[in-house]
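Repro:
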Amino acid sequence: MIPADLESILEAVFQDEALARQPRYIVEVDPADGLRLRKVYAFIRGNTLRGRHIDSYPLKVVAVVSDQSKREIMQKELVGLPHLFVESISDLEKQGIDGSRLALFLDFSNDPALIPEAHHGIIRYGCESLLSYAERGYFPRIGFSFCYGDKALNHFEKRPYTVRTEGEGVFVLEKDGKSEGVLQFTRQNEVVKIESLVCKWEYEEEFLEFFLQQAFCTTGVTEVHAILSCENYPGKDVLSVELYVEELKHEKGSADLATKLHVKHGAEIIKCIPDYKPNDTKNLGYGVLVVYTKGSRVIQHAVKLQNVLSYEREFSPDSIRESVEKIIKGFNVHYDKDKTVEELGFDDLQQLELRKFLSDEFRIDFPSNVFMLYPTPARIIDHIIAVKLQPYKEWLYETVWESTRKPDYRPLTSQRPWLLISEKDESYTQSLKEFLHEMGQQLTDDLSCAGAVVYLKAINLKGELEEQHKAAIQPLVEIVNKMASLKSEFSPKLYVATESISIDGSEKCLVDWPLNALCKIIREEYPKFQCSVVSGTVEDLIDEIRGGLNEPTVAYRNGQRLVPKLVRSHLHTVRIPSFSPRASYLIAGGARTLGLLLARWYASHGAKHILLLDELELNAQAKATISELEKLGIDISYCKAPLDNEREVNLALDEKLAKMPPLQGVVHAAGVVDNDLLVHMNWDRFRSVHRLKVALGWILHKRTAKLKLDHFILFASALANFSPLGKANHATGNSFLDALSHYRQKQGLPSLTIDWGPWDLKSMEVRHLIESPHSDRVKMLALEEGLQIFDHLFYLAKPQIVAALVNWPVVLAGVSSPFFDEMAYELGYKKLDVLKKYYESSQTDQLIVLEEYLHERVRKLLQLPSAQLLEPNREFIKMGMDLHTLQTLQNLIQNDLGEIVKLPYGFVEAHSSLDKLKKSLKSLLERQIPNSARGELLSESLLNDLKAKLQKGGDLPRILILP
């Protein structure tokens, strides 16, 4: 047998149908006995497409070994195989194997897309060969180098320098014959200690990484130590050194450049060392001990983003600025960050070259008009920073509740009776009956003749949580399906009354919010019923009925009428998670693909004790993950229990947690999918999804409510908002988790629900989840994208956030819900009624109307918080706009004005501040629509007057402005 990880690599390589592009050689450096080569060859022969075509596309095994006695042993092992012996890597060329291809070995990955088009072998190196590569300028590529036993499969690359030894305990980095860096070290038994590292900044990280690779390849070495000074220690008047180092531990060294460098490469900050440098008064003589172990190194490189296979250089704002400046100066121009590339002297051909250099450096697909959109180096840098460091911000949304006017009363003119569906004739129901009687409306018990149906079963629910869910949801599904089965041309209007929605965080919202989610599905699957949810008192419901509006969701609070809107969520500061090695962390749903990925993620952030909870038997993938983490020094346990059985879950957790450190964090990532239309739904099918969301979520909440947790994270889904068809049970279960976070935060407990778009887990469950009508509305999140977002959301103080890659053109083209109005306004798919407000206002107030309108448009376009005020005289360019953004703003304004007013080309660019633009826009309106021709606003009452005038032949306004 060969290791499973090597099997997956071989399968990925040798199953490729492009047989001519597959490797022709399997190369092993300094093998022990040739047994591995025989096993690898046998595996390829018996398990891959290449093996079935081995005669047409032969494969040879190559052993790099200089010891003659070893060769004799290996000759016996390799008898019968096409094989070759060479004494050194350089001898490969003598055998017709291109030595220049040393840089193109295989990554430690199983993604065939990353395998180079032309290469000659899989090479495993030993300790003695790594330095020989470095002396010739070849180094393991950072991020894909694992120098530990059977996993030493590396992707080498040529670099512009070499590394050699100079006596014992000294490595020297040279470029063009000159020394560019020196690293001194000592070894004592199993520990190697870095004494000093002096190197040019551009090579420092690579030099350190090479040394660590070499050190851990050395037989018997188990740890590498270094003692550092605190470069950014603020001084004893601010903070003691001990506390400063504790903060560095928590922040992964991010506040200090020296420790950050080592933590980035896998070191752990251990403690302060007194009297390290007695003369260092800045640090009071203290040093900081950092320690590398094999386990921490493997976690740093192999676990952090498992399956994130694309290598990406890590950028910072400073490094981006330096790189752009260096590239531009390379064209022998005088650098000025605020001059356009044309002003700097770039002609058309040089601009093409500059664009290519920038694309190659930052791996960004710049558009052909990049220097029109971002004309100066400063704007180019801002764009690159936004793309490289903040991509996730485009994918984050939250629900806000906006105040809106109460509806005007209208007479109830329905000729059909009302059907009230309630548990009993209580005061709420009785008050509604009295109102309808006063309005001259009839009541009925016959659904077939009802003109409107009011669902009241969610009022005053009693009992356990699941009983309340069933009592609220099951009858509503049944009544809706009965309404749909009626053979009538008339469709009754459906009102659903609730008492609380998650905005108040009360316990009642734990039922009412999932019920609201169900009503969204009803509105999607049965639009003819115009289902509306009204949260509040019976008087509030009466106001909505009398208003006759068709709002999907309304909540009355403290005399205000509120409606939900989806808006972008703007995060400004984030703190990457860091976990204590002296605490335990629970992952519910831990036997599933996502749970196992999260276990690796926890380990990569410092967790040493992880408990997986699920009801499934561990499959091969789960066992392999657990085994791998255990080998890396992680205490990882699995407990099995039916996830909706509180007693069984608590018993299982009691047994495991008794042997583990205190529980400090919980992630609930369990879920199952059972999509179908409401017409096919019953409570059993609802519960199949509910039990893993609702029951388990509530069990975990009760279990941990009295613990001092660092975090309580709930994984929910965003699909119910964007692609709801057939997801009723999924929507209600996930909406419960939304409400649970609001409820917990009101209790003073930590909680965050993330409503995720689908992750590309390559599982049947995920495909089933998104392969449904309207699945093109939300795109898959790659694993690296999901984990990056999770890193940045982890300590978010808000109870709920949406993280999804939304295809807005498709969503807004297919959905008319007011829930998306804010996004429609921002993206230009919906008009703001500026002209209506403008002409309703007095002459003195019209400038105020235009100022408020332009302020809102600019704020939304620049994605600024709603509370942020813009300076009226500040130029748009200084607000962060470029030519493309200015044109976008003009297009949005033109869209809002419609065909009545025409903006001249470059109008916004010519009037480049809020104050100038509002005055110029008012002047334009005066010129294009003079007072004598402004007409009247087309309201409903005016429409009737106009119809009457038309019939009588009366005069009409010359221009009608539609609201």
